[in-house]
Amino acid sequence: MAVTESQLKKMLGKYKYRDLTVQETISVIAQYKDLKPVMDGYVFNDGSSRELMSLTGTIPPMSDLIGLIQVMIVVFGEEPPVFSRPTISAAYPPYQATGPPNSSYMPGMPSGISFPPGPPPNPSGYPNYPYPPPSGPFPATTSTQHYPSQPPVTTVGE
């Protein structure tokens, strides 16, 4: 049983863009005979609900999700369905770069200064005390025990 234009207009009586929705629904149903319009309740994220129409049925096996996504990318790229408006204007103007990126650039440092590789000569901050040169990964460990071994302590409850 085919759905008529008058039946769709009656179903979509409260729709804001009823006539456009009816035209597009009729075009889709004419192309895909297995799709049928159905009115059903829909609950939105904010908890409100409305009666909305959906098309229920099957589309041909030659249709696929990849094709749908590709078409949506093209259509949404030309006319985005959703956009946002800024609620607060930016407090600061955007940063404007003054030149090309430079891997040796350090903010606040004059250009042309290079640093030697390795640790700084005096990382402790004490003047006239140079940092000792590395003599290996760590000091050698000794087998001398600093504390004599003690038997475990046992406590008896009173």
List the secondary-structure elements in sequence, H or E. Answer: HHEEH
CATH topology (fold) name of the domain at 5-59: Ubiquitin Conjugating Enzyme
Number of H/I helices: 3
At CATH's second level, what is the architecture of the domain at 5-59? Answer: Roll
Indicate the percent of residues in helices: 10-25%
CATH class of the domain at 5-59: Alpha Beta
Strand count, sense and closure of the main sheet? 2 strands, antiparallel
Please describe what this structure looks like.
It is built from 3 helices and 2 strands, in the order ααββα. By secondary structure, it is α+β, with helices and mostly antiparallel strands. It has a domain at 5-59: Ubiquitin Conjugating Enzyme. The chain has a two-stranded antiparallel ribbon. It starts with a helix and ends in an 80-residue tail after the last helix. Pfam families: UEV. InterPro entries: ESCRT-I_UEV_domain, UBQ-conjugating_enzyme/RWD, UEV_N. Residues 116-137 have a biased composition (Pro residues). This is UEV domain-containing protein.
List the helices and strands and how they pair.
Blueprint: H1 5-11, H2 18-31, E1 36-43, E2 49-56, H3 65-78
Antiparallel strand pairs: 1-2
